[in-house]
Amino acid sequence: KSTASKVMKALIDPAAADLMKFPTKELDLGLICSQNHLVAFDNLSDISKAQSNLLCQVVTGGNISVRKLYTTDDTVTIPLHSCLVLNGIDIAGHGKDLLDRAIVLALPKIDPSQRKDEKEFWQEFNAAKPMLLGRYFDVLAQAVMVYPDTKPEKKPRMADYYRWALAVT
């Protein structure tokens, strides 16, 4: 789980921090999300209803407004809009909203005969990274070309995301 999250982070948003601990305070989550395009939270085991709602807001966009330091009536607005990777065992969250915004991957266990040392894995990944990014951008370029003509028959919840998903496939 953790290595797959690190790979996604390395391909999409190679900021300094690859895996993060999930913050308990809204402001901390807002600060993390405002500084990263993709945030990977590692080893989650439970998400409260309030945290689930906040994660929904991060994915679809929103803001947190807090009092500016050393003032009494000035506020600072922190935009919430990031891609998220949540890894853990059984982290479905509370309610359907978060799952409606998620791509759920169930990763198989790696057979012991196929396991690699971290150093070996990352050397192979870094050697393949230009090819992987090239393929990623090829798919994205194709999706951008077909997106204007992609017209779903029915528009489900998260209709914009669904339309992009159709364009990619």
Task: Name the features.
single chain; 169 residues; alpha+beta; two-stranded parallel ribbon; two-stranded antiparallel sheet; 6 helices; 45% helix; 15% strand; globular
SSE blueprint:
Layout: H1 2-12, H2 26-34, E1 38-44, H3 49-60, E2 62-67, E3 75-80, E4 83-88, H4 96-100, H5 118-146, H6 159-168
Parallel strand pairs: 1-4
Antiparallel strand pairs: 2-3
Helix pairs in contact: 5-6
Any overview of this molecule?
The relative contact order is 0.13. Strands 1-4 form a two-stranded parallel ribbon. The chain has a two-stranded antiparallel ribbon with strand order 2-3. α5 crosses α6. It starts with a helix and ends with a helix. Helix content is about 45%, strand content about 15%. It contains six helices and four strands. With about 170 residues, the chain is of the alpha+beta class.
Question: How is this structure best summarized?
Answer:
The chain is 45% helix and 15% strand. It contains six helices and four strands. Strands 1-4 form a two-stranded parallel ribbon. It has a two-stranded antiparallel sheet with strand order 2-3.
Give the uncertain stretches in residue-range form. Answer: none
Distance separating the two termini: 25 Å
Spell out the helices and strands N to C: HHEHEEEHHH
Decide which structural class fits the backbone: alpha+beta
Mean pLDDT: 87
Number of helices: 6
| Widest β-sheet, arrangement of strands | 1-4
- Rounded to an integer in angstroms, the radius of gyration calculated over CA atoms is 18 Å
Characterize the biggest β-sheet: 2 strands, parallel
Number of strands: 4
Based on the structure, what is the oligomeric state of the protein chains? single chain
Helix content: 40-55%
The shape is globular
Binned strand content: 5-15%
